[in-house]
Amino acid sequence: MSNTEFDIIKKYFTFDHNRADVNFSIGDDCASVSVPQGKQLLITADTLISGVHFPENTAAEDIAFKAIMVNLSDLAAMGATPAWLTLAITLPEINENWLRAFSNQLKTILTEYNIGLIGGDTTRGSLSITIQAMGFCDTDKVLRRNQAAVADKIYVTGDIGDAAIGLKIITNNICDEALSPCVKKLNRPEARIKFAEELVSYSKCAIDVSDGLVADLAHILDASQCGARINLSDIRLSSSAIYYFSQYQNNVIDWPMMLTQGDDYELCFTASDDNVAAVKNLAEKHQLKISCIGEITESCELVFIDPNGKIVNFRDNGFKHF
Ligand code: ADP
Ligand code: MG
User: Fold this and answer.
1) What is the DSSP track for 53-99?
2) Residue 321 falls inside a structural domain
3) What distance in angstroms lies between residue 179's CA and the mean position of ligand 2's atoms?
């Protein structure tokens, strides 16, 4: 990029923070940080590309919000506390209004979660944002995909499928204020950081639902070498989702859409019976809706049971009754 690259970094991507674990950051070739004693470092990265991960006319604030949240959601999936970010951004042009909006949103979230932006890269090209998020958890406490055990209960946080409805509303140009929570869910997902930080005491196994519950639960089952039985009637839909299906779909719930489309950024986690009460209390403490949707089984099958007791298989390609 031209000389203004450094002006841009200084003006829009350099924020004050009060993290003592950052030794030095933006302005050197590398940042230097210190991991506190007794903690392990967790690292994740996600890229959002314009036209691929968000429509080209998406607001700068929404792009900034989602670019951070998808990364924080990965940290939440492991039970980690966010600490630092790097930001690699590719911009088609220097648009000060766009940069200001993007930067302000970035700053708001960094402040809210006490995260230091410690470095990155700024280049010219088609709009693309890569954020690397780093966080800590205790060395003996982390949520993994491979720790589900037979007879564990399976939970999801929040509202599964609302983001899929949000995308449908946007692509079909439906104007209905009653469905705005679904659009918000798509554009402004909220990583379950605070809940997950405490969940590590009562669970060993979690994943964040980014590719749809079916695919992401399947990752837990593959890693843990087990199966699951899920009751569709226990996946409690949001009031907006119920409204959507009654108003626009003749009361027929599109389960494949709700469970395979993704962008939920909720947690799917397991807990043994002796932790069920603690998990429920924790959700109440955080005023977070959780639903117990089924349990882990020994056979390596992912079985969904519809409200009529019929088995439904979403796993291979979409929706199959057998
Ligand atoms: P180099 O050319 O040595 O890789 P750069 O000139 O790309 O370094 O970056 C200068 C400094 O600014 C570095 O500390 C880098 O981490 C930081 N930086 C560059 N782009 C960003 C960005 N988008 N957000 C935060 N920090 C950035
Ligand atoms: Mg260098």
Assistant:
1) TB-TT--HHHHHHHHHHHHHHHHHHHTPEEEEEEEEEEESS--HHHH
2) no
3) 48
pLDDT of residue 316: 55
Phi, psi (degrees; rounded to nearest 5) at 66: -70, -40
Residue that is last in its domain, among 138, 155, 189:
138
**Ligand nearest to the CA of residue 28, numbered in listed order:** 1
Which sign does the torsion angle of CA 56, 61, 62, 66 carry? positive
Q: How many CA atoms lie within 13 A of 251 on its CB side?
A: 0
In this predicted structure, the answer to whether residue 315 has a pLDDT above a threshold of 80 is no
Q: Which residues in 262-280 are b (16+ Cβ under 10 Å) and which e?
A: bbbbbbbbbbeeebeeebe
What is the C-alpha separation between 40 and 301, in angstroms, rounded?
33
Ligand 1, pocket residues at CB < 6 Å:
9, 13, 26-29, 87, 89, 117, 119-122
Is the pLDDT reported for residue 15 higher than 80?
A: yes
What's the CA gap between 210 and 251, in Å, rounded? 26
The DSSP H or E segment spanning 119 is strand 116-124
Residues ≥6 apart with Cβ < 8 Å to 267: 76, 77, 155, 156, 157, 192, 195, 196, 199, 206, 207, 208, 209
CB 110 within 8 A of CB 85: yes
The reply to whether 111 and 198 lie within a common domain is: no
CA 38, distance to chain mean position in Å, is 26
Segments forming the whole domain that contains residue 132: 5-138
pLDDT greater than 80 at residue 26 = yes
Residue 314: CB atoms within 10 Å: 21
Q: Closest ligand 1 atom, CA of 122?
A: 20
Residues 275, 292 within the same domain? yes
Domain count, the chain: 2
pTM above 0.85, yes or no: yes
